[in-house]
From TrEMBL, chain A:
<dbReference type="InterPro" id="IPR006130">
    <property type="entry name" value="Asp/Orn_carbamoylTrfase"/>
</dbReference>
<dbReference type="InterPro" id="IPR006132">
    <property type="entry name" value="Asp/Orn_carbamoyltranf_P-bd"/>
</dbReference>
<comment type="subunit">
    <text>Heterododecamer (2C3:3R2) of six catalytic PyrB chains organized as two trimers (C3), and six regulatory PyrI chains organized as three dimers (R2).</text>
</comment>
<keyword id="KW-0665">Pyrimidine biosynthesis</keyword>
<feature type="binding site">
    <location>
        <position position="145"/>
    </location>
    <ligand>
        <name>carbamoyl phosphate</name>
    </ligand>
</feature>
<feature type="binding site">
    <location>
        <position position="271"/>
    </location>
    <ligand>
        <name>carbamoyl phosphate</name>
    </ligand>
</feature>
<feature type="binding site">
    <location>
        <position position="175"/>
    </location>
    <ligand>
        <name>L-aspartate</name>
    </ligand>
</feature>
<protein>
    <recommendedName>
        <fullName>Aspartate carbamoyltransferase</fullName>
        <ecNumber>2.1.3.2</ecNumber>
    </recommendedName>
</protein>
<dbReference type="GO" id="GO:0044205">
    <property type="term" value="P:'de novo' UMP biosynthetic process"/>
</dbReference>
TrEMBL record, chain B:
<keyword id="KW-0804">Transcription</keyword>
<keyword id="KW-0328">Glycosyltransferase</keyword>
<dbReference type="InterPro" id="IPR000836">
    <property type="entry name" value="PRTase_dom"/>
</dbReference>
<feature type="domain" description="Phosphoribosyltransferase">
    <location>
        <begin position="22"/>
        <end position="170"/>
    </location>
</feature>
<comment type="function">
    <text>Regulates the transcription of the pyrimidine nucleotide (pyr) operon in response to exogenous pyrimidines.</text>
</comment>
<dbReference type="InterPro" id="IPR050137">
    <property type="entry name" value="PyrR_bifunctional"/>
</dbReference>
<dbReference type="GO" id="GO:0006355">
    <property type="term" value="P:regulation of DNA-templated transcription"/>
</dbReference>
<dbReference type="InterPro" id="IPR029057">
    <property type="entry name" value="PRTase-like"/>
</dbReference>
<keyword id="KW-0808">Transferase</keyword>
Length: 314, 203
């Protein structure tokens, strides 16, 4: 593995290997006072975030630090980006400084692919190898989120193949939904997208999933339901009449959550807006795997860094 | 654990001449029984004869199986169950950057950690000592054992570090381009140890 740009670059065996590595890393750190592994000593990981983030950025930083990599954070605000430096120049600058891995989040879909192409081209000249990890590019992909969701499903349901997973809400603006649909399909799950027609992307009929507008009809047959945040910051138009109406039709209320089978789990990639897509009592119920997702996020990102950086550079 | 540790540097070539048997299935059982007796003799408390402070930790994959076998034999001979665990040393290896990322194996350290316990580290084959060095580093993260001893089924020589085993099933002088093939019923369907020579490699 050279870069992690899209879940579609992973076949079932590669994805499973990443999830297995995450499990082993979790085991290796279990019950230890000192959560530090020497594996990536001397490697440098730079996170480059052009969008706000709590979970993804912090968990990448923790993942790197727990494996003894040097982690450095760059954000658009407070860097030369605010002086007008281009994405290409910023990313090649970081790569030239000796970053072994650049973790990038950018509001433009495809940004991570562009950076990977630039650094690969630059490598021919400089010989410096930099792995690029996509930590969210616009409305395109968020591969490590899909991997941590898969890790959580595997942990809580005992497997992924044959399980039915519903992804509910603002699919149109959600890179999490897209990455999950493709990764979970690769791993053999049955995915159902449940959203108002205005919040579905063009071309969704070609995705490896089923689409439904009726949440109540789908809930009783789901093994897991993944609630998405309504991404108001990306909405430049009226996609539904009002927040209140959205919450009533697509929010996971306690009454709705009761329609789920007993073994089913409730997931949310975060940040969640309590009262909008998910009721507070549902988010805090035992069936909620939301904090488990966060915990798995660290181990999955450790696994990604391990697979990219621990071996010889290819 | 991984093939290259048991064999010489020519493993990648894959050409292996027919193996010469070093230990038959019955020999393996007998050897493990003898090692179990030696461990009981050296580890048991001098006054009480207790084994309560001992723990067997195997290095995956076959070291863990050997640790379980030794644990069962010790329980049979002494009447005391000794906890058995496993520790994956991959994350502590010094040769990670020499190849593609390696798959990790199971780490399962008995609850409560290893503080003040006598740890018997178990592996199938001892060669360079680098895996044992990595495992010692990994162990130290799980506590401060009273002492660590090393048990191996086969010591084939070619040490690259100042490490020796406390319990050895069989000493086998080997050439670097030879391979020791350890098989256990649990994963290989049959017990046995064989010596094979790799050909066409660089070794």
């Amino acid at each position: 593995m050279k870069h992690l740009l899209s879940v579609t670059d992973l076949d079932a065996a590669e994805a499973t290997a990443l999830l297995d590595t995450a499990d082993r890393l979790k085991q290796a750190l279990l019950g230890r006072e000192v959560r530090k592994l020497p594996t990536l000593r001397g490697r440098t990981v730079i996170t480059m975030f052009y969008e706000d983030s709590t979970r993804t950025r912090v968990s990448f930083e923790i993942a790197g630090k727990w494996m003894s990599a040097d982690t450095i954070n760059v954000s658009a605000r407070g860097s030369s980006v605010s002086k007008g430096e281009s994405l290409r120049d910023t990313s090649l600058t970081l790569s030239s400084m000796g970053a072994d891995c650049v973790v990038v989040r950018h509001p433009a879909s495809g940004a991570a692919h562009r950076i990977a192409a630039w650094t690969d081209r630059d490598r021919a000249v400089t010989g410096i190898h930099t792995s690029i990890v996509n930590a969210g590019d616009g409305t395109h992909e968020h591969p490590t989120q899909a991997l941590l969701d898969a890790a959580t499903l595997r942990e809580r349901l005992g497997g992924i193949a044959g399980r039915r997973v519903g992804i509910v809400g603002d699919v149109l603006h959600s890179r999490v939904a897209r990455s999950n649909v493709f990764l979970l399909a690769t791993l053999g799950a049955e995915v159902v997208l449940i959203a108002p027609p205005t919040l579905l992307p063009v071309g969704v009929e070609e995705w490896p999933c089923r689409v439904s507008a009726e949440l109540d009809a789908e809930l009783p047959a789901l093994d897991a339901v993944m609630m998405l945040r309504v991404q108001a910051e990306r909405m430049h138009g009226a996609f539904f009449p009002s927040s209140r109406e959205y919450a009533i039709r697509y929010g996971l209320s306690p009454e709705r959550a009761a329609l789920l089978p007993d073994h089913a789990i409730v997931m949310h990639p975060g940040p969640m807006i309590r009262g909008m897509e998910i009721a507070p009592s549902v988010a805090d119920a035992p069936s909620s795997a939301i904090l488990g997702q966060v915990r798995n996020g660290v181990h999955v990102r450790m696994a990604v860094l391990y697979h990219l950086l621990a071996g010889a550079s290819s | 654990m991984t093939d290259d540790r048991r064999g010489g540097p020519a493993d990648a070539a894959g050409q292996v001449t027919p193996a010469r048997e070093l230990l038959s299935a019955a020999d393996v059982t007998r050897t493990i029984a003898r090692m179990a007796h030696q461990i009981i003799e050296r580890v048991a408390d001098r006054e009480t004869g207790s084994l309560a402070h001992a723990v067997l930790i195997g290095i995956p994959t076959r070291g863990t199986i050997l640790a379980r076998r030794l644990g069962a034999a010790i329980a049979e001979f002494s009447g005391t169950e000794v906890p058995v665990g496993s520790i994956d040393a991959t994350l502590y290896r010094d040769d990670l950057r020499r190849g593609p990322a390696r798959a990790l194996a199971v780490t399962d350290v008995p609850e409560g950690g290893l503080d003040d316990l006598l740890v018997v580290l178990v592996d199938d084959v001892l060669m360079s000592g680098r895996t044992v060095r990595a495992a010692l580093d990994a162990l130290s993260e799980h506590g401060r054992p009273r002492a660590v001893q090393l048990a191996v089924l086969v010591d084939r020589g070619h040490r690259e570090l100042p490490i020796r085993a406390d319990y050895v099933g069989k000493n086998v002088p080997t050439a670097r381009d030879e391979q020791i093939l350890v098989k256990f019923t649990e994963i290989d369907g049959v017990d046995g140890v064989a010596l094979a020579r790799t050909t066409g490699g660089t070794g």
